[in-house]
Amino acid sequence: MDGLDLVTSLGTFLLSAAGAGFGAYIVSRWKVSGQIAQITQQLKEVVQQETAKAHGIETGKIEAINEKIEQVVNQQVLLTSATETIKSNVDIGNWINKENRALRREKIELLYSKMGKHYQARIAYLSLSDDINDMNNKKFNYHSLTDEVFMIIELYFNYHHKLDELIYNLRVNNVKTIDLVSIYINQVQFPPEEENMKLANEYLELSMELKKHLRQIMKSELIGEQD
After folding, report:
1. Rounded to whole angstroms, how far apart are CA atoms 144 and 150?
2. CB of 151 within 8 A of CB of 177?
C-alpha cells in the first residue's frame, strides 16, 4: 500500500468514526430531548394540578367570604328593618301620646265650661216657676248638661276607675236635687233653704274635688312634656 492509499484509508476511517460519533451524539441528544420533553410535560401537569388545587382553594375561600358577607348584609338589613320599626313605633307612640294630651286638655277645658253651665242650670232648675214651659226648659237644660258632664268624665278622665266614688256621689247629689224639685214643683215654691244649701254645698265640694283631679292631670302632663 502506497502512501496515498494509506492516507485515503485513514481519511475514510476518520470520517466513518466521526460519522458514527456524530450519529451517536445525535441519538443521545434525541434521547435527552425526549427526557426533557417528558419532564417538561410532567412539570406542566404538576403545575396545572397545583394551580387547579390553588384555584379551588381560593374559590372556596372567596365563596366562604361571600357567604359571610351575605350573612352580614342580611343581618344588617334585618337590624335596619328592626331599627326602623322601633323608630316608627316610637314615633307613633309619641304622636299618640301627644294627641292624647292635646285631647285631654281640650276635654278639661270643655268639662270646666260644662260644669260652670251645669251649676247655673242647677240654680235655675231649683228656682221654681208656675210657667210650665219655663220649668220644662229648665228641666231639659239641667238634665242635658248633667248627661254631658258625666259622659265627659267617664270617657276621658275615669281611667283605672279612680273617679268611681266621686262620680257616684255626684249622681247621688243629682238625684237628690231632682227629688227635691219634684216635691215642691206642685206647690210652686222654693224648696227649704236649708235643704237647698246643703245640696248646693255638697255639689260644690264634689265639683272642687273633680277640678282638683283635673289640675293634677294637667300638671303631670306639663311636667312630662318638659322632661
Report:
1. 10
2. no
Alpha carbon distance 181, 128 (integer Å): 8
Q: For cell 492509499, name the residue.
A: 5
**Per-position pLDDT tens, the chain of length 227:** 555 454 455 445 444 544 555 455 555 655 656 666 676 677 677 667 766 666 666 666 666 766 776 776 677 767 666 666 666 666 676 667 777 777 878 888 899 899 999 999 998 888 877 788 888 898 899 999 999 999 999 888 887 888 899 999 999 999 988 888 887 766 655 666 777 788 889 999 999 998 888 888 877 766 655 43
Q: Are 187 and 135 in contact (CB under 8 A)?
A: no
User: What's this model's pTM, rounded to 2 decimal places?
Assistant: 0.54
**CA-angle at 222, arms to 221 and 224, nearest 5°:** 60
> C-alpha 95: how far from its chain's center?
12
Please tell me the number of Cα atoms within 13 Å of 122 on its side-chain side: 27
Q: How far apart are CA 99 and CA 105, in angstroms?
A: 10
Distance CA 19, CA 7 (A): 18
- Half-sphere exposure (Cβ direction) of 54: Cα atoms closer than 13 Å: 6
Could you write out the DSSP letters of every residue in 21-66? HHHHHHHHHHHHHHHHHHHHHHHHHHHHHHHHHHHHHHHHHHHHHH
Cα separation, 220 vs 197, whole angstroms: 35
Q: Is 77 left (phi over 0), alpha (psi -120 to 50) or beta?
A: alpha
Q: What is the DSSP letter of 87?
A: H
